[in-house]
Amino acid sequence: MSHQFDSVLVANRGEIAVRVIRSAQAAGYRTIAVYSEADVDAPHVALADEAVFIGPAPAKESYLDPARILDAAARTGAQAIHPGYGFLSENADFAAACADAGLVFIGPSAEAIELMGNKAAAKRRMLDAGVPCIPGYQSQDQSDAALLAAADEIGMPIMVKAAAGGGGRGMRLVNHMDDFLPALEAARSEAENAFGSGELILEKAVLQPRHVEIQVFGDSQGNVIHLGERDCSVQRRHQKVVEEAPCPIMTPELRAAMGDAAVAAAKSIAYVGAGTVEFLLDRDQHFYFLEMNTRLQVEHPVTELVTDIDLVDLQLQVAQGVALPCNQEDVSLYGHAIEVRLYAEDTVNNFLPASGLALAWEPPEGEGIRVDHGLFSGQMVSPFYDPMVAKIIAYGEDRDTARRRLVRALRQTVLFGIATNREFLIDVLQRESFADGEATTAFIEEEFPDGVQQPAPSEPELGVAALLQYLQAEEDSLYERVSDDASLTAMSGARSIASSFAYSIDDELQSVSVLSRGSDCYEVCVAHKTLQLELIDSASEGRLRLALDGIQQDVAYSFVDGDTVALQCRGRAFTLTNELGLSAADRDAEGSGAVLAPMHGNLLALKVGIGAVVSRGDELAIMEAMKMEHRLLAQIDGVVNAIHGVEGQQIAAGALVLEIEPATP
């Protein structure tokens, strides 16, 4: 089969599809996008030269269906397929099917994908290649007895991992033998659902390590080089949140040793294309093979920024069958880059994935800032796919410059309508241990032992919210007027009348009053404090510049409805509802025993039946959303008296799953 091609189908969506399409077009390739029902209006669709509809929103019926992807390639005459990451990017059968169809799969061989995609087989191969590995169990006997015996021999603490997957799914940390069998059951279930295989491996837990990965690149002539390392230690639920290059504690000697090991790993499987060899690095700078990702990584931009190499363009060159254009001696690292993943998730509620309408999206700009995204204002962020909606990356001549630039960029980032981790990321970057380069994989547990807390809005922020709603009401009143006579606009009179608002803060109503003083000046009273607000500029929609007690600042905002406003000032964002605009029924609507779906998703399992006696905290059901399993727990003691959800079916956020009759006091 010829390696030559001049058209590329991108078998992905979102920010990575946009990223690949741009590099491919810059290199002169004709690009083809694919899209599901959920992505009809997505940016990657409009950006591509051609686009093909491939089916319903659920990934299994569209982006994960090889037949639909191959059909789209055939219909458009595509000669190559770039899988991005996720979806079919590490599916060996799909890579083989591309080859059988005469298509160039922009990635490694099906054999390499299959070998490295199974953690057990990969670890056996790495041991043979002399790559340092963590002590553990990776044999084919998957009986509970064999795994129990191995766990007893390895000793606690221990990691249980899905052999066939990654991304934190099918993974459990076990500290006590009493918890081992339940961890096996949970990991198997999640692994089977996510990857179609319940095979597990065990590894001795390396406590408080750094997660350091090496970017490798191979060509079809047998050349393999590495492009330095990335530190990906800041993680939640074993999924990366912050990534940087280079690693803050890297030395030339350690980089050479880790790079040599990564290159040896890639050469042992005749690797072609972009790949990443991941290691755990302990306090004594001993490193251990973790896994190999046989694709482009989410965090590849930080490597691009410090090496000045376009990795997607390099993928396209290698896929054409040409040799790598550089050797190891040509690779140098300059400066520092840090990337954060902007997730649609509720950080306060254990990072639960979120979805909804992006009322406003304003990516940041500035020196050294790069944003990879596939978003637009008014777009529906779907519950069917990964919750990462954008990547924000900062480059600087040194680490602290990159860190400061990234904090400022995040303060400027506006995304209303969806819960995000934006403020959590700012908090992470400003923590002393992160600023000092000391973060390990235990960072979030250590720095946020009680979870992530959402600070209540301050008095000035409540005042700004009330002023925004006051101005909106004023505008609505003027719009609906029937006369231009100022005396009939209800905005003039012999005496000034304050407008009242009230917001629920920590289950208590906080009253706010707004009084116009003329000439764009307002007096706002909050909690017995009087604030002076002056409207400086409101030329752009969704943006105001205000002077608060004489200090000017920018405010971004979006009205959710007549009573609710989302606003962001000084990097802090809130969504506030004027309770005086709500009916008593709206305010009091709380189901005593109603169990609602916290997000759109699939109801995997119901753990109780009608008549079951449950206590607060008991597991009631399991849902899957955005590739993660979530357990619904009882909030009260009582008896299950109704079940509305159906196992195996999709349910919407807020849908009633089951009901509990409260226990009699």
UniProtKB/TrEMBL annotation:
Domain ATP-grasp residues, every copy: 123-320
Essential cofactor(s): biotin
Enzyme class: ligase
Transmembrane portions of the chain: none
Keyword Lyase found: no
Classification via PROSITE patterns: ATP_GRASP, BC, BIOTIN, BIOTINYL_LIPOYL, CPSASE_2
Location of the Lipoyl-binding domain: 577-661
EC number: 6.4.1.2
Domain Biotin carboxylation: 4-449
UniProt-recorded Gene Ontology molecular function terms: acetyl-CoA carboxylase activity
Top-level lineage group: Bacteria
Keyword field contains Zinc: no
Pfam families in alphabetical order: Biotin_carb_C, Biotin_carb_N, Biotin_lipoyl, CPSase_L_D2
Keywords noted in UniProt: ATP-binding, Biotin, Ligase, Nucleotide-binding
Database matches in PANTHER family: CARBOXYLASE:PYRUVATE/ACETYL-COA/PROPIONYL-COA CARBOXYLASE, METHYLCROTONOYL-COA CARBOXYLASE SUBUNIT ALPHA, MITOCHONDRIAL-RELATED
Protein name: Acetyl-CoA carboxylase biotin carboxylase subunit
Organism: Congregibacter variabilis
